[in-house]
Specification:
This protein is α+β, with helices and mostly antiparallel strands. The protein has helices at 46-59, 116-131, and strands spanning 8-12, 15-19, 30-36, 64-75, 78-89, 92-103, 106-115. The chain starts with 7 loop residues before the first strand and ends in a 6-residue tail after the last helix.
Length: 137
């Protein structure tokens, strides 16, 4: 994964992510991950996966959802759903932007999360990383 120079890998919730914030806790303030949903491909369309993730956020008892929306765009991966939500948990406000797309029969989720105070500072980095994803065929 191509990331800006000041970003580094971090292990978080059994996944490798990337963050620009130093230290192992950096991901909690600003970070990205890419998930693939191959095991769900047989059961869900791209639209159904987005709906499932949307409903899961709304059912999370620990999150206070302040605002959320889903938009559909065309990216280099084709039809891409962008699910953006603003939440509050334990006094911290966060913006999460997930981009869902399909590449070679596999459903992917590009997941970016940021504390509200870091969102504008790293918004362009998140877009850069998404736009420069490369897949090994």
């Amino acid at each position: 994964m191509r990331v800006p120079r000041n970003w580094h890998k971090v292990y978080n919730h059994n996944y490798i992510g990337h963050t620009p914030i130093p230290g192992p806790e950096g991901y909690y303030y600003n970070g990205i991950k890419v998930f693939y949903w191959q095991e769900e491909k047989m059961n869900l369309s791209l639209e159904e996966l987005v709906k499932k993730r949307f409903n899961g956020t709304n059912k999370n008892q620990y999150l206070n959802v302040i605002d959320q929306n889903v938009s559909i765009d065309t990216t280099k991966y084709g039809k891409t759903f962008t699910y953006k939500y603003h939440t509050k948990m334990n006094g911290n406000e966060r913006i999460t932007i997930s981009k869902f797309f399909q590449y070679k029969e596999i459903l992917y989720q590009f997941y970016g999360i940021s504390d509200l105070k870091y969102f504008m500072k790293y918004k362009d980095d998140h877009e850069f990383i998404f736009n420069n994803l490369k897949f090994i065929d």
